[in-house]
Amino acid sequence: MRRWNSLLARMRDERGSATLEFLGLGVLLLVPISYGTLTLLGLEQATLATELAARNSARVLGDNAAANESLAQAHLHHAFTDHGIDPADATIETRCHPNPNCLAETMTAGQSITVTVRIQVPLPGLPGGVGALGIPVAASATYPQASTGPQPAGVTGQMAPSGTEPPASDLPASEGP
Hints:
The structure is a single chain. By secondary structure, this protein is α+β, with helices and mostly antiparallel strands. The protein has helices at residues 2-13, 17-63, 69-82; strands at residues 91-97, 112-122, 134-144. Strands 1-2-3 form a three-stranded antiparallel beta sheet. The radius of gyration is 30 Å and the shape is rod-shaped.
């Protein structure tokens, strides 16, 4: 009987300790999980922004690099601001292959343009901003440059005479509802 009384006395002394243990363990688990979630959200935003910026600016520059440079800059700016990233933090590199000059006057057949966008994603809660400790994110897109003359009428790449319609076999099939 003494044994039961001493056990009951110890249980009365430990009343509420399960709540404290749960709160302590909960905080210890909640902080790293929350930090990891915030880090992954920042990385996802940066990944989406860099991919969108690289792809859209390469498409625009592929049509006519000299004439569409301001439009490409607008695509870059909108891609970053839509994802909550300062466009000034990104570095953009534009390369042409095989001719390194991307101007429309010097384009050759088969030339392509590559736009690479890089950004450093800061870890949340650390002082120092972007220049401090961070995770690098980069994306690049390559598109062929369009010719400076009229666009091809069909899939074969032959020019259609002005005022004529391309053959029905060259038109893409429309998708119905």
